[in-house]
Predict the structure.
Amino acid sequence: MSSLYYFAAWTDSGCLLGCAQQHVTVISAVACVASAGGYVVAVDDGQLRELSPKEEIEFQFAMYGTGLLRDRPRALTPLKVLKPILN
Ligand SMILES: [Zn+2]
C-alpha cells in the first residue's frame, strides 16, 4: 500500500524547509504556506516529488482561487487539464 502526503515547503538561505504536518490533501498543505514563493511538495512512498498536473491545479486553485482564472484566463498554463478532471 502506497503512502502519500503533502507538506508546505519554502526555501531560506538555500535550504528546503517545510511544515511538520503530513497533509492528506494539497489544499490543506496550502494553508501552511506562510511566505511568498511557498509551494507544496508531495511525498509518495517516502520520496519527494513534484506535484502532478492535477495536484498542480489544486495548488493553483487553493492559492489564487477562481478570480485568477476569471481575470487572467491565460495565467495558468495547465488549464487544458481542467476538462478531463471535470468530466
Ligand atoms: Zn502543514
Residues 4 and 61 are 20 Å apart (CA to CA). Strands lie at 4-12, 15-18, 39-44, 47-49.
